[in-house]
# Entry
Amino acid sequence: MIWQFKEKARKRLAEETGTVVKDWGGRLRIALVFPNTYHVGMSNLGFQTIYWHLNQRPGIVVERAFLPDPEDLPKHERLRVPILSLESQRPLAEFDCVAFSTTFENDYLNMLRILELSGIPVRARDRGPGDSFVTMGGVCAWSNPEPLAAFVDWFFLGEGEESSHEVFELWMRIREAERDPEAARAEFLRALPGIEGIYVPRFYDVKYHEDGTVADVIPYDGAPLPVRKRRLARTDDYDTVSMVRTVNTEFGEMALLEVGKGCGRGCRFCMEGEIYRPVRHRHIDAILRAADTALQRGKRIGLVGACVSDYPWIDELMAALRARGVEVSLSSVRADSLSPGLVQGLVESGSRTLTIAPEAGTDRLRTVIHKSLTDQRIFEAVDLIADSGVPRVKMYFMIGQPTETDEDIAGIIHLAKAVRHRILQKRRDPKSLAELTVGVSCFVPKPWTAFQWCAMAEVRALEEKIHHLQRELRRVGIRFTHDVPKWAFLQAVLARGDRHVGDLLSLALTHRGNWKRVFREWPRNADFYACRERPLTERFPWDHFEVGTKRERLEIEYQRAMGLLPERPVKWKASLA
# Structure
């Protein structure tokens, strides 16, 4: 059976360009694992970036691995076939380190599945000198790694381009100097906390109150407190561009290119805008340098970032890329930073869809979440898009947000109908297709946001709102997509979980992801993590980290949102990388 999986890997490699293949001789062997399928993982720019940068080191070989496809996973589980790396089709247990790149909380169970299938002890305490190290980076690692503290040897907090090199250089030095594998492993783990941006959970003891909330975090063996994230001083020194191309991704053969890190808008539900502080825009010359490298393998580039249309030189960048014959697309655009030049550039690049995100259906709720968009500004953006001839518009909203009322849900319907009416009026050809899609996600309270104190709405209430929106929008010809509330609930439990949630994940591994049974058998109440309003005095599981935003400032923003303090004008600023 294993030959079938090897053949599938070889077929995927044959469809790629830009793959890095190295000889294993004398090198540190790292399996870079995305805890979802190949299609999802290869669509992730962060995963591609760390794969490329680590492989530039001569003493390191990095190979990729993924969760098996849905049709293959039962075969792996039934026949105990190990997970194989893509490049050499070796079992993950043969690597020195299994490094997960994790950007979505609901993939935590997949991490444990991959370890179990690979024959690597799932819990860190059970691993010895003959076992692979297990580490994790990605946004989940530095927002709140505590639910995975029992399973991961160390976490990369922050941007890992520099710290990853320092960590693996340290391991190579210790391994060469210390002949005893067990002593080398212990020495390495003790030395890791000395590197900024590295969190080794075994060196921190967490105490809890009787009510289940965190009482204290006690470091030992010289581990630092707080644990500070790593931030690149100059993002221009590291190109963030997808170097491996394959048609088997969400974006086909399009290269993804990051224009900057973070967002200065300050939306109160958004974690990315907080943990990437300060905002750093890449210099246009650095972006074009990376683009020229990417263009050696194709003519399609997707510009990505938290808010691409806020890039200060977006019109100049679009013009320079178009002069190179590039087809350009944007991950999303801000309605209030949309310009005729930007829209024209996207149209000339062949864009058939433009996406804006009002997030809420009324001006009132957009003020609460600190989204500085009025209905009028949204209409102006839609008119600009429609006048350009773009046939499809997408609008994204979030339901279940703090202070939301029935009027806010009705506002989504009213706004969507008004937008569709304007699109139809602007059609150049009455027979042409003019399509509007409304996408709805469920609000999930996240760490490091002004809404980290808020409760998530109950699943049944979210389902009722979705059914209402679906019925009202589809009857007037508006396409409708939505989240699944029960999975949003799981995300909320994992996002704000503590170390006790690790037992929930272990139970989920035992019961093969039967979450209904898992929540029933888990001795703790999942609503404690997802649907409970927190007092401002409560200590959070992630409070012993320092990621660049201050809790005191978030408290003020929370109180402003709840009407307890005067609101402030929306303003934002950014810095050059």
